[in-house]
Amino acid sequence: MVTAARTTSQVLLHMGVAFGVMWAATGSLAFGGVAAVVEPLCNVALLPLHDRLWARIQKRLDARRHKLSPIPEANAFKPA
Predict the structure, then answer these.
(1) Cα–Cα distances in Å, from 18 out to 28, 44, 51, 62?
(2) Lowest-confidence range among 19-28, 59-68, 71-80?
(3) Residues contacting 28, CB < 8 A, separation 6+
């Protein structure tokens, strides 16, 4: 329940900022409304691609780090 409320709050805040910036820049309520809808939709489409790209970068960095370490144990996961 809290997660849904938090997510809804974030979406509404994001839409409000998009509306406010576009309205301030153009003085148009119509452009502000379009920005408030289009910009979050673009984020929904692009954020998974962004996350996949960073996961790929992290995987490559981990592989490089593993190859460069002279001590194999230095790369092993050690639970606390």
Answers:
(1) 13, 14, 22, 37
(2) 71-80
(3) 22
Rounded-to-integer distance, Cα 34 and Cα 46, Å: 18
Indicate the pTM of the whole model: 0.58
10 Å CB burial of residue 3 (0-12, 13-18, 19+) is exposed
Contacts of 11 (CB under 8 A, 6+ apart): 40
Please determine, for residue 75, whether its predicted confidence score (pLDDT) is greater than 80. Answer: no
Q: Which helix (H) or strand (E) holds 61?
A: helix 29-68
Residues in contact with 69: Cβ distance below 8 Å, sequence separation at least 6, in sequence order: 75
The amino acid at residue 8 is T
**Kind and range of the H or E run holding 70:** none
